[in-house]
Amino acid sequence: MKDKFLEAMWNRYACKEFDESRIVGKEDFEFILEAGRLSPSSFGFEPWEFLVITDPKRRLEATEHSWGGRDRAMGASHLLVVLNRKDDLRAGSEYLDGFMKDVQKLPQDIIEMKSGAFKNFQEDDFKILESERTLTDWAGKQTYIAMGNMLTAGSVIGVNSCPIEGFHREKTLEVLDEKFNIDTEKFDIAYMLAFGYAKGDAPFKKTRREMGDFVHFD
Amino acid sequence: MKDKFLEAMWNRYACKEFDESRIVGKEDFEFILEAGRLSPSSFGFEPWEFLVITDPKRRLEATEHSWGGRDRAMGASHLLVVLNRKDDLRAGSEYLDGFMKDVQKLPQDIIEMKSGAFKNFQEDDFKILESERTLTDWAGKQTYIAMGNMLTAGSVIGVNSCPIEGFHREKTLEVLDEKFNIDTEKFDIAYMLAFGYAKGDAPFKKTRREMGDFVHFD
């Protein structure tokens, strides 16, 4: 499994051209989503929400303000828009209390303890509540954990992908609000992922710094 | 491989108590680092730097201002501190020009094109250059992609882990500067990961929202 895992990581690259005629099967796509679902997040709060778009016309709408992903998204089989919560994630929110009770099934005394720790963390340690931007950026970070796992999961089953940050954030949010019924008071956009099958081979050889260039052993 | 990948994801949890007597072997730890190294990042700029601490006394120093990770880091076999670059990542920086030339081996005309796209992305699309905080948060996001892959890689080979955001960021940076020779003008701290072998079984059953609770099909 070690070799196959690394092979999947080596094979993954930001696919620039997908084969429009090939669709990722339902089970395979669910496997990718499952890798996202099972990903960890700070305090286990899963601050993400996924929007899956398959219809080409709708993908064109969603990527209207994208320069870095429109072509890729079009040829792909699935476009996954990943959103993150914002205000709901303030320590003490009704949403988080409900989440700890209903999803995490925690008893009331643990909820109170966890709430207190989370409040200190947000206010003092990471100063996450300084602005709306710092809050959404912190929540966004958590969704990048899921990104790592979903891209690797795709590669494990031979599905190519392209992560997309190349779009105008505010204008794209407007489109999601107006045309996709996303409550942009509650959700921000973190990134998009295009999944499908590449047309041809990877155009470049993967490059990375050598381990010794960025790993320091104390 | 599909089943084994999901099994690894199911088995991973934030380990609260490590068996101090068990050390992660050199090859296994390198496998985990390799999963980080091969992770994608925006524009392929790999904005991360890793600090590996194994000596218990040194781990105690690094986690001096941590409430959420000190005990875990102590029992673990390896503590990995993940840092991210800041100012170096401004479009047009000498560092990025060097990176595109020496690591990515891009020809000069492509470097100029990529620089321009990156500048627009930072200034306009994602408004990353609004403040020092937005820049470091954006760079930090990229390191969370590597986090996802490293935690999953660990689980693939039966290594337990605990991701740690539970520390005072500024005070920990001071320690890294003073005692670990980290240039905190250049680097910010993103998170820490403890790796080792759990003492006993997972204390909780993993909880997650159901797919239908957060995945919307357009």
Q: What's the gist of this structure?
A:
A four-stranded antiparallel β-sheet of chain A has the order 1-2-4-3, sandwiched between helices.
Estimate the global geometry of chain A from the Cα principal axes. globular
How many domains of chain A? The number is 1
Per CATH, the superfamily of chain A is NADH Oxidase
Q: Mean of the pLDDT scores of chain A?
A: 95
| CATH topology heading of chain A | NADH Oxidase
Give a written overview of the molecule.
The mean pLDDT of chain A is 95. The first copy, chain A, is globular and about 55 Å long. Chain A has a 4-stranded antiparallel sheet with strand order 1-2-4-3, with helices on both faces. The longest helix of chain A is centred in the middle third of the chain and has 25 residues, at 132-156. Chain A has one domain (2-198): 3-Layer(aba) Sandwich (NADH Oxidase). The first copy, chain A, has 218 residues and is an alpha+beta fold. Helix content of chain A is 48%, strand content 15%. Chain A is built from 9 helices and 5 strands, in the order ααβααβαααβαβαβ. The two termini of chain A are 30 Å apart. Chains A and B meet through α1, α2, β1, α6 and α7 of A and α1, α2, β1, α6 and α7 of B.
Give the topology, please.
2 copies of one chain form a homodimer.
Chain A: H1 2-11, H2 26-37, E1 48-53, H3 56-62, H4 70-75, E2 78-85, H5 94-103, H6 108-125, H7 132-156, E3 160-164, H8 169-180, E4 187-196, H9 211-214, E5 215-217
Antiparallel strand pairs in A: 1-2, 2-4, 3-4
Helix pairs in contact in A: 1-7, 2-7
